[in-house]
Amino acid sequence: MEPDKPASSPATRRIAIDPVTRVEGHGKITLLIDDDNHIVEARFHIVEFRGFEKFIQGRPFWEVPFFVQRLCGICPVSHQLAAAKAVDQIVGVNQLTPTAIKLRRLLHFGQMLQSHALHFFHLSSPDFLFGFGSDPTKRNIAGVLEQYPEIALKGVKLRKYGQRIIEAITSKRIHGTGTVPGGMNKPFTLPERDALLADIDDILQWSLDAVALNEHIHTAHPDHRDFGSLHSHYLSMIGSHGELEFYHGDLRAQSSGGGDLLAPFDYCNYQRILSEEVRSWSYLKFPYFSALGTEQGWYRVGPLARINNCAFISTPLAEAARLRFKAYGHGKLVHDTLAYHWARMIELLHCAESIHLLLHDRDISGMDLQVEKGKYQLQGIGVIEAPRGTLFHHYLVNDEGLVTQANLIVSTTSNNQAMNESVRTVANQYLDGQEITEALLNHLEVAVRAYDPCLSCATHALGKMPLQVTLQRVDGHVLHQLTKNTEGAIQSSPNKH
Amino acid sequence: MTMTTDTIRIDDRDIPFTPGQTIMDAALAAGIYIPHLCHHPGLPPSGNCRLCMVKIGNRSTAACITTATAGQQIRSDTPELNATRKTITQMLFVEGNHICPSCEKTGNCKLQAMAYHFGMLDDHFPQFYPRRELDASHPDILLDRSRCILCDLCVRASRDVDKKNIFTTAGRGTQAHLIVNTPSGKLVDSPIAKTDLAANICPVGAILIKEKGYEVPIGRRIYDWQTIRETGLQEQVELKNKD
Q1: Looking at residue A26, what DSSP letter applies?
Q2: CA 20 to 30 Å from B221, out of A282, A431, B50, B58?
Q3: ipTM value > 0.90
């Protein structure tokens, strides 16, 4: 028996949602239910194996940022930048030129903007605009386009804008280059800047609208407050004054009751603070604060963690939105899992404002892109706030410049335990002896979706994923089965009891 | 150099040649592109890659190692030959480990450019996934045998131009591989320098100058704005101008 789960007694049943839809990558949910229909265990499994940590061993370190960004089709910029920061350390560079650092920040804001827009508008908005249990054939971005074209188009254009920034700096919208050891490989031209400036007012307004929409959705639905909510610890990066920070800074660990678990720490010391547990039923590891142990030490990362952890936001519109968010929580931590969406849109607004500022910054079009390399180091650690949370890249290299060891803690990994807990909470709250329906199924997925998990860091096949939920007795006899085919049609199995 | 009035005919076009000149050199000099990877103007031919296979009557031959002879009737740019060349390109891909999406040579790679030239959309053949040794021992130069296509250009450049004779090939068939002519077999023990032609002639990403590959942005690499046909002809012009 595995230590992290209760025994499956003869009276339990197993339900599997395989795969979970409208998330990045492939995962499944399984539930063990007893005779009273209480949830004995809920698990969110990551069923993909990626293996990047292994197969970059033996590769040259300067190749790493472009190798590991292939982890993901949505947030490759985050992986490239985290690895680039690690590579900077390896080549002995501690400080980039003003232009290079601002280009990297602009790139990162563009990445964050497009990823957040994609997640809310394309993947999650159907749940909120139509209802968790609404007609599944309409509950998708195509349905949003049909019924709420203005909202859908804003989302599409917001994402496109972020991708345009990425393309301008890395030469491609997905999987470009850009970073080099100690700087950047190409300047940002004035025509590129002017083209982006021409649309920034719309981007700012649409970001404000997105915050307002999410604020309304969350505050107008009291049941959202407790939906899969957890009193968790939080981990995120903060700036030197405690502000919201995505690119570089110390890490803050805050306890579920509020207040620091420990003083903000240099991310290069992460191994003294964090540990990872491996469980046999998932390819995703379970990180935790070492001092608190596996049971009490799990934490959440991502937009909710960042907005809870920061003392302020440096841009005025996002800061005003954050203050309303704090007021909603009466000044305390907001633990509502569905408030991830609201926090995410506050960050979206911060990205839009920051992009606006950077586009007006004279340094952004500078030509001084690289600094001289320093003393070669045998280790590099790069940490960044990716859209989904704190992202760790840690590499050891040998004298010849080849990677000998790598450790990546991707954002979704840190939310692993939390996603499992949220699934269990929602299952207990909504399953409760009910016959399995597609609507119930989607409630579980809504809980997972709030975290914007990037399971494979791979491109997704929106609306094309087959889905099967099976209710079976412990002896394997199938009691009830729901199947969604690749066209989205739902079929109930004939052996329904 | 004495010009003759003798000609060969390539794809219905008569072109002149000089005595001793190969079909490849005569074709390139006349502005006719015959696909190639192991040929490089100024280096002796080796006939390794077989992409330049042409038809003289019913006989197939590699244009880079066949001497032009007056009156030859040569077919090169035909659907059949190009289909064969595409197949050869696919074979070159599957025999090595070519990670184009993240390879630092992407955009500057002749093998990749050749794949585009022939409209190669997949590998067709099963991947070999060979295990090949990577040599990072030299402070300036990386030898990644996973990408080597055994074109022999580094061997000839080192031997005939650099006069250092650093590389050679060993083994046969699928076991053939590039070796370094030092007791240790490591580049660091060889006299190779990053300014040597051998260090810069690799058409793929097997021999690279360390830490430089990603400095040229996407969009400004050779094959982002030129075709391999254009660069193939250009190399011949550059050699002529040099002479």
Answers
A1: -
A2: B50
A3: yes
